[in-house]
Design brief:
By secondary structure, the protein is of the alpha/beta class. The chain is built from eleven helices and 16 strands. It has helices spanning 2-21, 24-27, 30-36, 61-73, 87-93, 107-110, 152-162, 189-197, 208-216, 248-263, 266-277; strands spanning 38-43, 52-54, 57-59, 76-81, 98-99, 113-115, 120-122, 124-129, 144-148, 164-165, 171-172, 182-186, 203-207, 222-226, 237-239, 242-244. The strands form six sheets. Strands 12-9-13-8-14 form a five-stranded mixed β-sheet, with helices on both faces. A three-stranded parallel β-sheet has the order 4-1-5, sandwiched between helices. A two-stranded antiparallel sheet has the order 2-3. Helix 4 (61-73) crosses helix 10. It starts with a helix and ends with a helix. It binds arginine. Arginine (ARG) binds at residues 43-44, 46-47, 50-51, 84, 101-104, 148, 151-152, 207. Arginine binds next to loops.
Length: 280
């Protein structure tokens, strides 16, 4: 009996705490942001041209978009540079107002956060030594492959190396499974690229523009090629900004700003500018 009472008390307490804090969407509503005078964007500034450090400060395409959103609301922009694989949960819990980090829209992530309209597209790329032979993903058989933890590149390669379940829950053998191929996760693509240069791994899988910039900025002879399957198809992805689930007021502003930037050709301008600025 005592245990039951204790349990009920705990439940009452917990719900009181939850209620007093409000939902993540309430904490980060446009009104709440205006009251605090600050829009908090979480990013991972190791992904040029979308976000990278210049004089120690995060800049890039996503930061320009986030600044336009803060300006539209009329508040300061606060940027938090964190590990990529923590961004979605920080947006979900209401710690961050939004996540802007070249984040690919996936069905799984849609269960945790709401996404804006897409502002650009990408595909996965493979960074390899310049003299490596490569036609498609099966050429990665037996290789040690580096990825950034928690990214779509990580999910795609881990599935092909370890096997996965299809939509009906049936086991599917990965294209790289039982070939000796392994996945090594890094906290960012630059660390993975360093491991590639020193010969610890043989390939890095990461989004197109970051892959191309890493190759351009490398003194070692590397190449960036598209990750394609044997039938020539690729891994089409769309980038969007995420907000807490149900945060309608903020999502509306984000969509309005992104649409305007797209209409005015600004996103393309930002991409060109930062692809040049991020050159070593
Ligand atoms: N587009 C990929 C994903 O959503 C990689 C994004 C990595 N972004 C970053 N800022 N490090 O998983």
């Amino acid at each position: 009996m005592k245990k039951i009472i204790a349990l009920i008390m705990t439940l009452v307490l917990c719900s009181a705490v939850l209620l007093s804090c409000g939902s993540a969407a309430d904490k980060q509503s446009v009104d709440a942001i205006k009251k605090r005078g600050e829009l908090v964007v979480y990013t991972n500034a190791e992904f040029a041209p979308f976000e990278y450090l210049a004089d120690g400060k995060p800049v890039g395409v996503d930061m320009d978009i986030a600044k336009a959103i803060a300006d539209e609301i009329g508040v300061e922009l606060k940027i938090e540079n964190v590990k990529f694989d923590t961004i979605i949960s920080s947006v979900q819990s209401g710690k961050a107002s939004l996540g802007a980090a070249g984040i690919t829209v996936t069905d799984e992530r849609k269960e945790s956060v709401d996404f804006s309209i897409s502002y650009t597209t990408s595909t996965q790329y493979v960074i390899l030594p310049e003299d490596a032979t490569y036609e498609n993903i099966t050429d990665l058989k037996g290789m040690k492959i580096g990825v950034q933890l928690g990214t779509t590149g990580d999910f795609i390669i881990s599935d092909e190396v370890n096997g996965y379940k299809d939509d009906d829950g049936k086991d599917v053998k990965g294209l790289l499974q039982d070939t000796g191929a392994t996945v090594t996760t890094y906290n960012n693509a630059n660390l993975a690229a360093e491991a590639l240069k020193s010969g610890k791994i043989q390939a890095v899988v990461i989004d197109k523009l970051p892959a191309e910039l890493i190759v351009k900025n490398s003194t070692a002879k590397l190449k960036a090629v598209e990750l394609v399957y044997e039938d020539g198809s690729n891994t089409a992805e769309s980038y969007a900004i995420c907000v807490a689930k149900g945060n309608k007021t903020l999502l509306e502003v984000v969509n309005k700003v992104v649409q305007k930037l797209l209409d005015e050709g600004k996103i393309d301008e930002y991409i060109v500018k930062h692809s040049t600025d991020a050159l070593a």
